[in-house]
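Changelog note: in this version the structure field was regenerated for every chain. One regenerated record is shown below for reference.
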Amino acid sequence: MKRVFITSIVALLFLCSCNNKPSKPSKKIANKNIENVSSTSHDSLFLANIDKRLLANPNDVNLLVKRSNRLFKMFLKTSNTEDLYKSKQDAAKAFRLDSNNYEARMAYTEALSRTPGLNAQEIKNVYRHYNWLLNKKKTPKAYVGLASYYSYTQNPEKGIELADKALRLDVKYRDAYVIKSTLFLQMQKPSLAISSLETAVQQDNEFIIGYMQLADLYTQQKKYPIALERFKNVIVLNKNSTEAWYGVAMSNQKLNNFKEAKKSYRILLEKDPKHFLAHYNLGFIQQYQDKQIDSAMYFYTKSIDLIPEDLNIQAIPIVKNHLSKANYQIGRCYEQKEDISRALLSYGKSLKHDPEFELSQNRVKELKKDVYKK
């Protein structure tokens, strides 16, 4: 399965947020959609109100912290880095205005710790700020923040120790389980990472990023039935998640549920008509399961045509591999139609993108042998 998994430390740290919710077993998850229009409108109204008040009082520390925290929550929900940088800007200003303000320093440190590509000094600053916060007040959030520092410095054991301290203060603190998952992955212990994330989603059944991460981890372990359920959890919360729809479709394909796979791929293409992998996989099912060769060729060709001609393909391995595979499969279709010259042409296109693509190399050798025999 060709997926881009969220396994880097920065991406995993992104899972943590400043908003922990207790589990609500009486409330059905199906009634929630955390990225609906009303939520977005509420954020916009809230920010508009704060913006207006800050125009009159641009150095109001409390207002700057409130806006920073709301922008930070929006970033955690949507992964829009513009929200993260705006949050960090507000928090930094509030911190400069009052460096002894606990909430201002917390807001700044939270945004800083999740900024991609931190340099060595910035990482040290994260450590210094979280220690200051813990000295003032021992909270689960501060312990988890300091634990994240140890993921940067490759000391996961120390990080887990701090996460456990957070849990001793609040056993239901979701982000403590999330950071433990990050640290367990650093330690090459995926089973413990999964266990921690499962506990996190038990504490917050609207934790969409947690469900997505679990789905990816289960997929890596080839546990497709469980991965399928976790992708579905994401869709319940965000029906427009193209990544989750792709996961549902691919999981069904791996489980030989081809009817459901095709249905999910088509829903995905309604939401994102340019999803080239969805077109490719529909072609694969048409070719090898439905035996509809012309239909398969249509989808393979469509998946190729969606790649921009001016794209630096060699710099993007997944695209390079896709073009090699799609042209290879078109070659196989031509072989089934007994059009050997066009099959060879397709294999040539495949090898143009990746001269070492073994499947195409082997077919070219075999076909040339047959030609010499004749």
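Spot check on this record: Residues 207-261 form a domain with the Serine Threonine Protein Phosphatase 5, Tetratricopeptide repeat fold (CATH 1.25.40.10). Residues 1-37 have pLDDT under 50 and may be disordered.
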